[in-house]
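HUMAN: Quick job: go over this next protein and say how the chain folds.
***
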Amino acid sequence: MNRTDIIILGIESSCDDTSASVIRNGEVLSNVVAGQEIHRLYGGVVPELASRAHESNIVPVVETALRNANVAKSELSAIAFTKGPGLPGSLMVGVSFAKAMSMALQIPLVEVHHMQAHVLAHFAQVPNNPKPLPEFPFLCLTVSGGHTQLVWVTSPMKMEIVGETLDDAAGEAFDKIAKILGLPYPGGPELDKLAREGNPAFIRFPHPRIDKLDFSFSGLKTSVLYHLRDKEKEEPGYTQKNLKDICASVQHTITDILIDKLNLAVKKFKPRDIALAGGVSANSELRKKFGELAQKRGLHAHIPAFEFCTDNAAMIAIAGMFKFQEGIFSDLSAAADPRYQDSQFVTHKP
């Protein structure tokens, strides 16, 4: 190890994935994620079960991450952890473990905002496979199960939320509509698979009229519910008969809403680079439309590798590295914060 190397252990436990990652100077040496299959039985994440699973997973996940990275605990420069937002019990497991390990090793502790980390996931590099990085300032559309945001990023430490959902997040809309359609949890990826074989023009669902750069998806969920209710009365078995076309129509509507707002933001901020982040960035239709918009506007498009799109500790470690470089550390009074707001990640509606 070079004495100037910055080696960060990242810990992520905001929802139902327990993850640990080791990075060296921005290169991801390991990124281990343990999922929780138990939630499939309930059609959604059960917070109490999630926190118990984190308690079981956290030690083996961290040990595996260190072993895979071939890094000893004594070589770590700092430990970064997700402070929030997220589920209280889940966050508490990761925070408590990070604090205990930091105290035992006598190394700095760095708290990270989960959504800020999704944006900075674009800076995670895989050894021997470098990719172009976004140039500041850039515009990032961050789409996950709990958040939908347009973020103007002027530096790793300065980001402004210039648009966000007023109700359901896009990922939440995908999952809730998938549940209405009877698809297994998690419904978003299942809906995406079926949509690839359907007709996106089968049903024209309305777009919400929301001012500025904000989003709304709760109305779409209601429209789908009422449409299926009425059609089933007229034609029993309508939903199953037309499932692929319904999925394609829903996906087309959600992705159109997202890209339309991104296009408005591009016109306003005039970036050279645009980025896509969050778990929903794995959606095939959204990726396609995102690329088409970038090509049409002559912009550089950036999407992280799939493993860095969903909740993972590599993005936490990357965000922690930037804070480490700035000397921004936490102390042992740090606590889980389900509604965490970071001064470097602020809301500003132009």
